[in-house]
Amino acid sequence: MSEETQANHAKTEPIKTLPLVFDEPRGRKKPPRHLADLDEAGRKELLTQAGLPGFRAKQLSNHYFARLVDDPAEMTDLPAGQRDELVSALLPNLMTPLRTLQADKGKTVKTLWKLFDGALVESVLMRYPGRVTMCVSSQAGCGMACPFCATGAGGLQRNMSTAEIVEQVVAGARALQRGEVAGGPGRVSNVVFMGMGEPMANYKAMIAAVRRFVEPAPAGLGMSARHITVSTVGLVPRMRQLAEEGIPVTLALSLHAPDDELRNELVPINTRFSVAETVEAAWNYANVTKRRVSIEYAMMRDINDQAWRADLLADVLNSYGDWGWVHVNLIPLNEVPGSQFTRSREEDMDEFLRRLEAKGIATTMRDTRGDEIDAACGQLAATE
């Protein structure tokens, strides 16, 4: 890439104000305040306001984030006379499991959660050799209206709170610690924001949840930011904002098409932020953080899987240089019953991958998990 081209790529536009369409419906009752919603100072302040000793906040945080305890009877360092009041103040119940389905010999566990107001969300625990990944939801429903997505079909109900996001991971960590997942006791090593919702449209809660994940115990779970992936369909202003947070998470851009004509149909937000703007924001994230960006590409039969689109995708990505800033993750489509969108043929996916690699783009085909348990985001909630 020439110096002039690189300079043009490096230019950043002023952050645009996101339209109100991204906001959740107004007037909804908020979830109960939980210690995971707050930093350490906020937890102490909440207890003090309730007439309780602020120093107990650290003990409660230790039980929640480090010990993964959810039974007040096990919190024996708290005075018996105040225990219930302390737990009620900082550890209210946030969500109830409605259904739990297993696949892959018990190493993939999908949970349908009912939130305090009846909203339904899903999380998935996936155990692989050497790691355990939690896929979490950030919204009940989604307002991005991608036609091939089960979640988008139901629209947006509301944003999830920081604590509701965090609780999905903590619940998975508890199950692993107790040996309830096939493979014996373990720990959550990776988190991906690839469940229900658009994480960037719930930015404040999402980034606060990331902070809870990376803060050392007992303030948080003490995870590595490099093991956290935040996915987006391309909310450009928020992508640029994430680049300035100083938290080196992996950014995953759900692109699904390399040309505006098709992407306008598959990812409607593209009518607001074009392929060029979206990919440039992804490149900017890689350039600022020195973290390789993942391009997510769901393979849909005879829609976006043509060989010429593989060549075009490679050309678009290579226009920002060949310094290894990007990795393409091809995803065999999780089919939604009754949808016109179906999974690409094996030979077409293989050719798509071959053409990307031939042009120097690092590419992998995602290992599909849990097809038999409605693995696609929103499918399980839709059946309820």
From TrEMBL:
E.C. number: 2.1.1.192
SUPFAM superfamilies: Radical SAM enzymes (SSF102114)
Domain Radical SAM core: 128-371
Signal peptide residues on this chain, from the entry's feature table: none
Membrane-spanning intervals of the chain: none
Membership in a protein family: Belongs to the radical SAM superfamily. RlmN family.
Protein name: Probable dual-specificity RNA methyltransferase RlmN
Origin species: Nocardioides daedukensis
Taxonomy of the source species: Bacteria, Bacillati, Actinomycetota, Actinomycetes, Propionibacteriales
